[in-house]
Amino acid sequence: MKVIEHISKSNGTLFSFEIVPPPRGKTITAVTDVVETLLPHNPSWIDVTAHPAGAYYNERPDGTIERKIYKKRPGTIGICGVIQNRFRVDTVTHLLTQGFTKEETEDAMIELNFLGIHNVLALRGDGLNYNKQYDKSRSVNHYAIDLVKQINDVKNGRFLDELSQSLPLDFGVGVAGYPEKHFEAPSLKLDIQHLKDKVDAGADYIATQMFFKNEKYFQFVELCRQAGIQVPIVPGIKVIKNLKQFNSVPSNFYVDFPDEFVEEAHANPKHVEEIGINFAIKQCEELVNAKVPSLHFYVMNDAKSVAQVVKKFF
Ligand code: FAD
């Protein structure tokens, strides 16, 4: 089923989560262990993030530098295939514009259809750390909206490769939204206008960046509705586990913590994990009472603390 079907068939708040493919060299058990820990709480869908290739530098013994370009976290489509076909839970494959040509995106959609995966989250990505040269015969998407449009074309049987034109593919499409504004956008109003454009281009739900102040989410939903965005807006939740994350999370995701949460954690450094779980439980209680479509957890492969939170609700 598509994410939008899960949401429209449900009377209450659902549970869903997102995992990051493990680093290169690990095996599929790094993923299946996470899924097995959270499976008893009946997730409606599981997202798997995507990662383009990057440039990595290595100093040789003679002091010269060697540059290699490779994927640090391979396997988004394969991981979705394993989860969906082994655990019978719908998966959402993240697709990026950055680092991928339109031709590669089309190939990915054909592969997803082959595996029975019919959900994608259409994203731009956060920039490549090297100057990728594209073959002149290939084309690229820029913003996430361009990807949404390409997916829509494929849904209508319009392929880049005319040989494939006979088989329209069926996908539910999500896009990203930012309750605290995307860091590049000059204003929240303009960011929401770009979000509306993505929805008008064919996205059927929005998944939000993580946030720790529910009022930011509620205000964002209100502003989206005022802007004419009617699709479900799924809130993103992160369970904080250690003190380091109070610095790494804002610098990576441009989000803010409530003062009391920061102060309580720093005053009790040995109990940060418990404080993080209790904070997330309270945050989720308010969201469930507000009848949000799903509590969507950024697991980032730390399933145990997420399980402590979700067992209270699911
Ligand atoms: P876009 O919607 O393209 O927006 C990017 C910026 O451009 C925004 O500031 C927007 O306001 C602006 N903009 C949009 N359209 C226009 C226009 N026409 N003219 C001018 N400005 C415009 N990253 C990964 O690498 N892999 C993942 O798997 C991944 N998963 C994510 C999941 C979620 C739920 C979220 C919230 C983020 C995820 N990200 C992921 C991060 C995401 O790729 C970055 O936040 C990225 O910087 C923006 O992606 P986007 O799809 O929101 O971009």
Describe the structure.
The protein is an alpha/beta fold and 314 residues long. It has a single domain (3-313), classed as TIM Barrel (Alpha-Beta Barrel). Helices cover 40% and strands 18% of the residues. It has eleven helices and ten strands. It has helices at 3-9, 29-38, 76-87, 102-115, 144-155, 188-200, 214-226, 245-253, 259-267, 272-289, 303-310; strands at 14-19, 45-48, 54-59, 65-70, 90-96, 119-123, 172-177, 205-210, 233-237, 294-298. The chain has an eight-stranded parallel barrel with strand order 1-2-5-6-7-8-9-10, surrounded by six helices. The protein has a two-stranded antiparallel sheet with strand order 3-4. Helix 9 (259-267) runs antiparallel to helix 10 (272-289) and helix 10 crosses helix 11 (303-310). It is globular and about 60 Å long. The structure holds flavin-adenine dinucleotide (FAD). Residues 49-51, 94, 96, 121, 123-126, 143-145, 176, 182, 184-185, 191, 194, 198, 207, 209, 236 line the site of flavin-adenine dinucleotide.
Number of helices: 11
CATH top level label: Alpha Beta
Shape: globular
Structural class of the secondary structure composition? alpha/beta
Order of helices and strands: HEHEEEHEHEHEHEHEHHHEH
End-to-end C-alpha gap:
20 Å
Query: What's the CATH topology name?
Result: TIM Barrel
Strands of the widest sheet, in order across it, are 1-2-5-6-7-8-9-10
Supply Rg.
Answer: 20 Å
Architecture, CATH level 2? Alpha-Beta Barrel
The whole-number mean of residue pLDDT values reads 96
Largest sheet, in brief, is: 8 strands, parallel, barrel
Q: Share of helix among residues?
A: 25-40%
Share in β-strands: 15-25%
Tell me which ligands are bound: flavin-adenine dinucleotide
Uncertain runs with pLDDT below 50, 5 residues or more? none
